[in-house]
Amino acid sequence: MLQVEGVHKSFDDFKAVDGASLSVKEGELVAVIGPNGAGKTTLFNLITGQLRPEKGRIIFDNVDITRLPAYRICRRGIARSFQIANIFHRLSVFRNVQVSVLSQRQMSRKLFRFSGRMAIQETNRILKSVGILDKAAYTAGSLSHGDQRILEIAIALGNRPKMLILDEPTAGMSPEETTATMGLIKQLAEKEGLTVLFCEHDMDVVFNVAQSIMVMHHGRTLVQDSPEKVRQNQAVQEAYLGGDYA
Ligand code: ADP
Ligand code: MG
Known about the structure:
The longest helix is centred in the middle third of the chain and has 19 residues, at 111-129. The chain is globular and about 55 Å long. The protein is an alpha/beta fold. The protein contains nine helices and ten strands. Strand 4 (55-60) and strand 5 form a beta hairpin. The strands form two sheets. Strands 6-7-8-3-9-10 form a six-stranded mixed sheet, with helices on both faces. Strands 2-1-4-5 form a four-stranded antiparallel sheet, covered by helices on one side. Magnesium ion binds at residues 40-41, 83, 167.
């Protein structure tokens, strides 16, 4: 479904992404791991069109999306969350998701009222699927940090994506919230048939959940393989044991 082939991105002289490659099959849960500064967020920005690669190719659903602007990549079916939650703090939880549902349907103002009921059902369905329907009336800013991250996933789902890209979905969460969130992500992949690509700096968190793991190191792909193979991989062990993962 997604094929990233040798992409490069520099900031001045610094090669943040230096020939990274990645492949994601439909329905798969793929993790990108690597230490802080490995280039994970930059790689995601290249995939979703926030940044453009200087070299390389990105194919999504049989279409070359390498040079497409972010909004068109989003319309083709890739939705994302950010490392720092991107929500409307003063709107209700419900409204945050409803706005996303309506904008995906490209409803004009005139159609707003007409489409209202449909959007309500869809919004409720999404809030239920991520387990925060009981908090629909809360203002988004009043949610716990963990629930704000979950809300961000719900907003992304409002775009009816084929693929969900999550940048450190468990960052700043307690161990309990982390376990619950990873369970939720796994459930979304299995029950909703979503393809999920996420990055995570904590190796332990991903090994139980991901079907495929890409290890990033200094902007490059060290390896992409099953969790067992990655665990046994010599180059990964050297990179980790070398103290880079402190
Ligand atoms: P990760 O998400 O794996 O922690 P990032 O992709 O955020 O890594 O960053 C990779 C490297 O690129 C880091 O050294 C970071 O400082 C640098 N970098 C990222 N974005 C920018 C930018 N906009 N300008 C300059 N340097 C950047
Ligand atoms: Mg990052």
